[in-house]
Design goal:
Elements (H helix, E strand, L loop, with lengths): L1 H19 L5 E4 L10 H10 L4 E3 L5 H6 L6 E6 L4 H6 L1 H12 L7 E9 L9 H17 L7 E7 L3 E3 L7 E2 L4 H14 L3 E4 L2 H7 L6 H4 L7 E2 L6 E2 L2 H15 L7 E6 L14 H16 L14 E4 L55 E4 L5 H12 L21 H15 L13 E4 L42 H20 L1
Parallel strand pairs: 1-2, 1-12, 2-3, 3-4, 4-5, 5-8, 8-11, 11-12
Antiparallel strand pairs: 6-7, 9-10, 13-14
Helix pairs in contact: 1-14, 5-6, 6-7, 12-13
């Protein structure tokens, strides 16, 4: 009996760790305000093809739920603002909705969140007072079905819910919404639900181009904006806006509520006065965003904090009103072709080195060894650890603030380490094996100040560093991986697995 109890405890702890240490994710918003979109069945296939694992829809459309059944895609579904009145008035309305619109398709349709109302403070109708009563009724319906621990209930908001957002430490909720926000935040804290916010640096730049730099909005800034109250350094507007929410929550003593970004993105086309709405800018913003999120970078006020984000939107939507940009936020055209290329997994968010896309010089017979974009994250991490340890590779250049640290992902870091070992050991095929994770290419992977060694040339890359010591607030890890939390989790998981084996 004692042996069985120990096994159950260890198994429970292992599952708990799997749940709490899974890392941040990037999802996509599937808006359908258009009359030329593919059928939900085709959309489900498109989403799976591009390895999109998380999807937000704005209602509980039965055809969409059926299409995504048994796909493994996690769904965030919505209760529209138009339904807030009946949902808030009578519990039976929420019960009936759950019974008819959700339960027949669950759990085949993997629903994990229900948003009750969307950006109600921006609505022309005064419906904000209906949100919390409706949320309570939806939660009660879920409790009756035994699903309240599997499906979280929240509501989404625009950044207009704040009265101040800069500097981030001065973030404060608008007092005009106090009657609605206080019970909402109490609900979120009690039920461990996230505060959902829609963040758009594009609008901040478009409306104030003289005050906001384009690079700062696109995650491309090389300079920092300093919060005078905290001394925290911000290199992009997204982080500053997220932290403004965190500081606003802290000011009201709601320190345990997590923030989730339920919409963000960049349009690929706009009206004549929307010059920043281009495919290149949209690709840059979303690529940098994915990299930022997948690497569990966190924000200056919450370094390493899990932050889940949904990009808006899956398709261009031709029925949306307003300026031209409003109809051009999509990652895909309605015919399912890409508006621009984007890696949704984040594994190669910056550059697919295997394709030679970043090589700008011809090789003249010289070859380099880089990491395969198809290698698993675990294999890459193990290979980096070996190369920078037993392999005697100098991995200083891929440490924080050094010239090869960015892009901060395992493929990039492994490529630098692999090539250094490859060149130091005769540039032979064997020296680029790394258990099948290495690939020999004939285009120089060198970029910016990150110089890749070539045979016979022992380049000291660290001499090219332009890093400012004040920008590094954490101690570099021995192997330059940005995923120290994941490494610890892996170690704990391995230990628990050994425990399982010994108990069985």
């Amino acid at each position: 009996m004692k042996r069985a109890s120990s096994f159950i405890f260890a198994a429970s702890l292992f599952l708990l760790l799997l749940d709490c240490c899974s890392g941040s994710f990037v999802g996509i918003c599937y808006g359908r305000n258009a009359d030329d979109l593919p059928t939900p069945d085709k959309v489900a296939k498109l989403v799976q093809l591009h390895q999109i694992k998380y999807l937000r829809i704005y209602d509980s459309n039965i055809q969409v739920l059926k299409a995504f059944a048994n796909t493994g895609v996690e769904l965030m579904i919505g209760v529209p603002n138009s339904d807030l009145l009946p949902f808030s008035q009578f519990q039976t309305n929420a019960d009936t909705w759950l019974k008819n619109s959700i339960l027949p398709y669950y759990p085949a349709a993997k629903i994990t969140y229900i948003t009750v109302g969307a950006e109600v403070t921006e609505s022309s109708n005064n419906v904000s007072a209906l949100v919390v009563p409706a949320m309570n009724n939806v939660l009660t319906a879920l409790k009756k079905a035994g699903l309240h621990k599997k499906i979280k209930v929240s509501s989404t908001h625009s950044l207009g819910v704040l009265s101040r957002s800069f500097p981030p430490s001065a973030g404060a909720f608008n007092s005009n919404h106090a009657h609605f926000l206080k019970p909402l935040l109490e609900f979120l804290a009690e039920n461990q639900s996230p505060f959902m916010i829609d963040i758009y640096p594009y609008y901040a730049y478009r409306d104030s181009p003289n005050k906001v730099s384009l690079d700062y909005a696109l995650f491309e800034s090389s300079s920092e904006v300093i919060d005078p109250n905290t001394g925290l350094l911000y290199t992009n507007m997204f982080d500053a806006q997220v932290d403004a929410i965190y500081f606003a929550l802290t000011a009201l003593n709601f320190r345990t509520i997590k923030v989730m970004v339920t919409e963000t993105g960049w349009p690929s086309k706009g009206s004549p006065k929307e010059k920043a709405a281009t495919p290149d800018n949209a690709q840059t913003y979303n690529t940098n965003l994915i990299r930022h999120v997948i690497n569990d970078t966190g924000t200056p006020a919450k370094p390493g904090e899990e932050l889940d984000v949904y990009i808006f939107s899956l398709f261009n939507e031709n029925r949306k009103p307003g300026l031209e940009s409003e109809r051009n936020w999509g990652l895909f055209y309605p015919d399912e072709t890409k508006v621009y290329s984007l890696d949704f997994t984040g594994k190669d968010a910056a550059v697919d080195l295997t394709s030679g896309a970043n090589g700008t010089r011809t090789s003249n017979g010289t070859t380099w060894c880089i990491a395969s974009s198809k290698a698993s994250q675990a294999d890459l991490q193990n290979a980096i650890d070996w190369a920078c340890g037993s392999g005697n590779v100098d991995c200083t250049a891929i440490q924080p603030s050094q010239p090869c640290f960015e892009p901060d992902n395992l493929v990039s870091h492994a490529s630098y380490a692999f090539n250094s070992y490859y060149q130091q050991n005769g540039a032979s095929d064997v020296a680029c094996s790394f258990g099948g994770s290495g690939v020999i290419v004939d285009k120089d992977p060198t970029y910016d100040n990150c110089i890749y060694m070539r045979t016979g040339i022992n380049t000291t890359v660290t001499s090219n560093t332009t890093a400012i010591s004040s920008t590094s607030t954490s101690t570099p890890t021995p192997t330059a991986s940005s995923s120290s939390g994941r490494q610890i989790f892996t170690w704990i998981s391995s230990s628990l697995l050994l425990t399982f084996i010994s108990l069985v």
